[in-house]
Amino acid sequence: MSIATWEFESPPLHLFSAEIAQLVEHNLAKVGVAGPSPVFRSFFRKTTIFFIMNLYLRYFDRETLVSTVDEAIDFLQAIDEIEMTPMLEADIRDYVASDVFYPKRYKIHPRVYFIIIKTDAATMQDFKEKKAVHTPENMGAKATTPILARLNEIRPGWYEGTIDFKRVTQIPGTGKFQYRDTQFVACVKASSGMECYERIVDHLRERVDDRSQFPAAKGKCFKFIYLGKAKNLN
Question: Is the pTM of this model over 0.70?
């Protein structure tokens, strides 16, 4: 088993050694403010139950809490780095209108993302006091297991993530390939354990053979530790 440790936010990738280059890293986003009394509206319908929620968006140090998808689009269009194409806007609207309740990240550039989270929180303060993730009762027991709840808990700061995966490597002098059990450890800035996992896997996918296999975030092959708040999430 290969073991490598890397702390990254924007480290020079060419500095990876031959051993560490087998492995890889990942990304994140950030949050903002709406009015003091945001208006709640019904975005979703599931059978006969209506869920009322807001949307939290973050791009680096820009963040907001809004009550409609149109306000979310306006917020994103005001950011020069984000090109709001018809395809991107349609995807955001589909996500908001869907029954998917997990946070969604959108890639802007390699290792640069913005995040959207559906939330019951009425204010930014409520959101940051861990009232963020919407977990309707009729989503089923599987969606509210302790493992998933811990993975999706919103807690911005530094995380240490450890992932055991099967990396495809070439057998010297044979031209053949084999799976090699590899462990990768990285310290990343993220808003949740799930985002820590996603950042690490994204990083690795850009640097290893695409036939390499990665475990699910909720499995025993991925572990993470919350290290503390980051002074600067840019």
Answer: no
